[in-house]
């Protein structure tokens, strides 16, 4: 069975480029991958130069060469830590009818962290508004329910937190998810 | 609902056969546990399934057929497989097929029941989910606390959602005991069919744990019976017992050990975790204690410690004497009442003199006592720390005494002052009504009362200063003891087994499935 795949480009709330890749594995299994721009050489050079210039300035003030070597260490460790813990390159949302929803974040160093939510716990997928610093932004989130109390929302899990796409991208993802969830609600568990 | 078939990854390349496992109707999921190969006798397959069903309390059945052949399904094989569907009737009947050498799979689910209403939708597609049997078997899912109105024996209610799948695999251990080297009439393929995986050390430990537990439990019961003698409740001993923290720690450890070595098996995963944590913390404690022991007893450190102890106590006493001399003069520029100052100062100085002579009396025996007491470190680092805390308490006993005297004096003074202040204002404390009432005093009562009041109030700074100084000293000692107790509690209660499990085998600690791959 062929799976349909298409890739489009959108922008995030700051104007950066994002690319959304929707894969339709089957009528009840879809995957949305949102990739943001990679770490640019320009920012990296700028930050490194700034750190080393300040270190050189301190060195001329206090004549201690430890400042220079510690600046090098800090730059290296800082870069590694940033790539491994902070910079998220791609976020994926995999939704499988009657099984669950899985969110994967892959970092620039290759690390992947996944979260899986069973379909029993998913109440709905909605687009919500939030006040973020001086802006009002839209974000997609999954509402969770406790299977014992199906009419109350127990938790709200936001999706695509680091990519932060704009409303047009969110609407695409929202429509696809709702198709699958509608199918899931039409055939409830006995 | 979409029909989900959970298929073990180890069976993806085995020969054709029958699929056996469990059907979970609430989620429309078929969990395949093993593949039965040809040739087989249907009666024996049914017997095996009945045995496994009895052992695991779950409904086992033949779920369908598995076909792994060279090219497209041959006609005769196709009819044979359909014939099997009539022998082992199961609704729905799965037919999984894979071509050798390729990655083409075909899955079909056939519903035998004729649907009553003519406009029901066509059969759903089958979703095939691969799972690693070994990992799913070894992950213990720790479910959250069950709702109070569930019965303890009501096991189906506790396994909801995907937890039911994990539950199915872990409770069917009996099915995985036969491997392909056994001469059983039914040939199965599952994750252990190449040979049952086990570790010699684990098996030996399990076999030895029975007698060892019995032996240790009996020894511990003798010790705890000795500990509950009525003799220990006589007055001096019970008082000393309540004050020494080493006894408390010993008792705590004894309780923990008797829980760990009790002959009952753990009822639930949390209890097992608790027992394992206790055992690991006791072992780590004893290891650290032995390390301390080897460090203390090498290079005659005990002798050095004993030799440093007496001069140390002397120095502390000297410092206290200096302090009292300072208080007897004009401390921090405050002017004290000379007579009271001298009395209190001389009283406390005499006490210090007594204390020093007592320490000097004990000095020849210190080394022996320390040597024998240090041997108790082999019972654990926490015991050694508690003994250290007790030694500090004993050595600073004079500071404690001073604090008690200072506090008593101050307390008396404050009571006297408050009662005379009430008299000064013409009021009285009514003990029956527990409140302050007005009262008419005679003239001589008022005169004496006012006199005493002024005396006490002018003596207040002196007593308050002594009280403050000795309270601060006592606080210092209590802080040091408190830090030692904190360290002891930390060692006692750190769950090292759970931490180690989290680092090495995180799937044993999950409470819900965390990731698909």
From TrEMBL, chain B:
Keywords from the UniProt entry: Membrane, Transmembrane, Transmembrane helix
Gene name tied to this protein: Pigq
Record-level GO cellular component terms: endoplasmic reticulum; membrane
Top-level lineage group: Eukaryota
Protein name: Phosphatidylinositol N-acetylglucosaminyltransferase subunit Q
Statement: the UniProt record of this protein carries the keyword Metal-binding: no
Gene Ontology BP, a term: GPI anchor biosynthetic process
Native species: Jaculus jaculus
Residues passing through the membrane, by range: 278-297, 343-361, 373-396, 445-469, 475-499
């Amino acid at each position: 069975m062929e799976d349909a795949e298409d890739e489009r480009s959108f922008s995030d709330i700051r104007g950066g480029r994002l690319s959304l890749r929707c894969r339709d594995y089957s009528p009840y299994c879809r995957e949305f991958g949102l990739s943001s721009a990679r770490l640019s050489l320009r920012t990296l050079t700028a930050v490194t130069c700034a750190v080393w210039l300040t270190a050189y300035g301190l060195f001329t003030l206090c004549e201690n060469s430890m400042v220079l070597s510690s600046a090098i260490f800090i730059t290296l460790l800082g870069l590694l830590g940033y790539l491994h813990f902070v910079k998220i390159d791609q976020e994926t949302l995999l939704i499988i009818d009657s099984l669950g929803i899985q969110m994967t974040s892959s970092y620039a160093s290759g690390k992947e962290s996944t979260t899986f939510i069973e379909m029993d716990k998913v109440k709905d997928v909605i687009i919500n508004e939030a006040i973020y610093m001086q802006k009002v932004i839209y974000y997609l989130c999954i509402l969770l329910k406790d299977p014992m109390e199906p009419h109350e929302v127990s938790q709200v899990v936001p999706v695509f937190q680091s990519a932060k796409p704009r409303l047009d991208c969110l609407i695409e993802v929202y429509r696809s998810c709702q198709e699958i969830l509608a199918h899931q609600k039409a055939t409830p568990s006995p | 609902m979409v029909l989900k078939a959970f298929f073990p990854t180890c069976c993806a390349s085995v020969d054709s056969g029958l699929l056996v496992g469990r059907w979970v109707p609430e989620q429309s999921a078929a969990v395949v546990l093993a593949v039965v190969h040809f040739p087989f006798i249907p009666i024996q397959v049914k017997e095996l399934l009945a045995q496994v069903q009895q052992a695991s309390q779950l409904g086992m059945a033949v779920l369908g057929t598995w076909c792994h052949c060279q090219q497209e399904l041959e006609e005769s094989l196709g009819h044979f497989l359909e014939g099997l569907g009539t022998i082992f009737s199961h609704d729905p009947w799965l037919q999984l097929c894979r071509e050798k050498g390729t990655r083409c799979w075909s899955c079909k689910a056939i519903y035998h029941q004729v649907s009553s209403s003519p406009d029901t939708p066509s059969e759903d597609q089958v979703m095939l989910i691969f799972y690693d049997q070994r990992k799913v078997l070894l992950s213990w899912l720790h479910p959250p606390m069950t709702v109070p109105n569930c019965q303890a024996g009501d096991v189906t209610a506790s396994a909801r959602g995907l937890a039911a799948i994990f539950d199915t695999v872990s409770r069917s251990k009996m099915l995985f005991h036969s491997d392909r080297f056994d001469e059983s009439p039914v040939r199965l393929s599952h994750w252990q069919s190449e040979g049952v995986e086990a570790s010699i050390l684990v098996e030996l430990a399990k076999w030895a744990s029975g007698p060892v537990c019995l032996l240790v439990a009996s020894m511990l019961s003798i010790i705890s019976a000795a500990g509950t003698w009525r003799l220990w409740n006589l007055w001096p001993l019970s008082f000393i017992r309540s004050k020494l923290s080493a006894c408390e720690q010993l008792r705590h450890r004894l309780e923990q050990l008797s829980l760990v070595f009790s002959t009952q098996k753990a009822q639930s995963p949390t209890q097992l975790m608790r027992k394992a944590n206790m055992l690991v913390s006791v072992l780590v404690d004893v290891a650290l204690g032995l390390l301390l022991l080897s460090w203390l007893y090498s290079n005659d450190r005990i002798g050095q410690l004993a030799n440093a102890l007496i001069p140390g106590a002397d120095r502390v006493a000297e410092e206290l004497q200096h302090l009292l001399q300072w208080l007897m003069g004009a401390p921090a520029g405050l002017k004290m009442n000379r007579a009271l100052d001298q009395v209190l100062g001389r009283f406390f100085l005499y006490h210090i003199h007594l204390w020093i002579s007592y320490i000097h009396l004990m000095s020849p025996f210190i080394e022996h006592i320390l040597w024998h007491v240090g041997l108790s470190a082999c019972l654990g680092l926490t015991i050694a720390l508690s003994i250290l805390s007790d030694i500090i308490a004993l050595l600073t006993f004079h500071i404690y005494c001073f604090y008690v005297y200072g506090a008593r004096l101050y307390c008396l003074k404050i009571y006297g002052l408050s009662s005379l202040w009430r008299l000064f204002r013409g009021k009285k404390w009514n003990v029956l009504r527990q409140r302050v009432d007005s009262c008419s005093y005679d003239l001589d009562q008022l005169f004496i009362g006012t006199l005493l009041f002024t005396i006490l109030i002018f003596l207040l700074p002196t007593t308050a200063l002594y009280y403050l100084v000795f309270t601060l000293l006592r606080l210092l000692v209590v802080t040091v003891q408190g830090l030692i107790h904190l360290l002891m509690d930390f060692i006692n209660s750190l769950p090292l087994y759970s931490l180690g499990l989290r680092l090495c085998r995180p799937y044993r600690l999950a409470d819900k499935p965390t990731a698909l791959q």
